[in-house]
Amino acid sequence: MTREMKRILVTGACGQIGSELTLALRERYGHENVVASDIRTPPCAILQDSGSFEFLDVTRREALEAIVRKYRIDTIYHLAAILSATGEKNPHLAWGVNINGLYNVLEVAREHDIARVFVPSSIAVFGPETPRDPAPQETVLRPTTMYGLTKVTGELLGAYYVRRFGLDVRGVRYPGIISAETPPGGGTTDYAVEIFYEAIQHKRYTCFVREDTVLPMMYMPDCIRAAIMLMEADFSRLRHHTDFNVAGLSFSAGELAAEIKKHIPDFVCEYAPDFRQQIADSWPRTVDDRAAREEWGWAPQYDLPTMVADMLEQLRRKLQA
């Protein structure tokens, strides 16, 4: 059932994960073999200049199908989605993009003999009834946000396509993603990116979650590795498919601020929780990722000190440029 990936389409390529994953895939598989697509203009020229780019609204099935035919796509990384905080402001849009868009991707993949589809899930699938430290691989999934609801639906729909149609659909439950390349995109864990910009530029940040709020996080290099490792794994080793817990690092907002302060001694962080605090409180503090470790060899490479040091170095270089 495992087939070689040769012609790859990335949807949502202008987003936080998509922009860096696209470049990593081009380096790995050849720039001419990875097509980036998004409903937005690329935030940086390199995304458009380093390979093919197509404007795509994933809710328009015929447009998606045309790109698959044009480039003879055999693998899709489907990253187009409305995130948690934005989804609460516009739940109808979140449903339309996250569910109808995914259904289009799966149906086009099924009809056009796509070898493999990557559909990321999220810790947003967990809810208040989920054990929080750690969240098990197999557990209660009763999220309290539209984003979380769409991600549970996506996991189940992807698993259905594996069983019913033999389509190779894979996905991980990403924690909050921290990256220096792309600005935050409307997620509840965005404070962990915003804080670096404000620390460098203004030496002061007002955090929208409490100081003691602990959430699972992951540094972008580990995020990219997780996606590629899972997609390259032998299908016969996988007992799970669309719902792998993956852990990177867990810390409180206060611990992150304290680590940044080691590098920027006059940095001051204040706390003013808003509506996102309630979302954060419904998510786990840590996740149990033994299934990912056992089935495809997952292990993160960054901890809090190494992530903060590298993030500050990368972001300073970017802001100076």
Verbal overview:
The protein is α/β, with parallel strands linked by helices and 321 residues long. The protein has helices spanning 16-29, 45-49, 61-71, 84-89, 91-111, 146-165, 191-201, 220-232, 253-263, 275-281, 290-296, 304-320, and strands at residues 8-11, 34-38, 53-55, 75-78, 116-118, 121-122, 169-170, 172-174, 176-178, 204-207, 214-219, 244-245, 249-252, 268-271. The strands form 4 sheets. It has a 6-stranded parallel β-sheet, sandwiched between helices. Strands 6-8-12 form a 3-stranded parallel β-sheet. α1 (16-29) links the parallel β1 and β2 (34-38).
* CATH architecture tag of the largest domain: 3-Layer(aba) Sandwich
Order of helices and strands: EHEHEHEHHEEHEEEHEEHEEHEHHH
Q: What's the CATH H-level superfamily name of the largest domain? A: NAD(P)-binding Rossmann-like Domain
Give the mean pLDDT.
Answer: 95
Count of discrete structural domains: 2
Annotation field: number of helices: 12
Radius of gyration: 19 Å
Shape: globular
Q: Whole-Å distance between the termini?
A: 46 Å
- Return the structural class: alpha/beta
* Strand percentage: 15-25%
Q: What topology, given as strand order, has the largest sheet?
A: 3-2-1-4-5-7
Helical percentage: 40-55%
- The total count of strands amounts to 14
From the 3D structure, determine the CATH topology of the largest domain: Rossmann fold
At the first level of CATH, the class of the largest domain is: Alpha Beta
Biggest sheet overview? 6 strands, parallel
Residue runs with pLDDT of under 50 for 5 or more positions: none
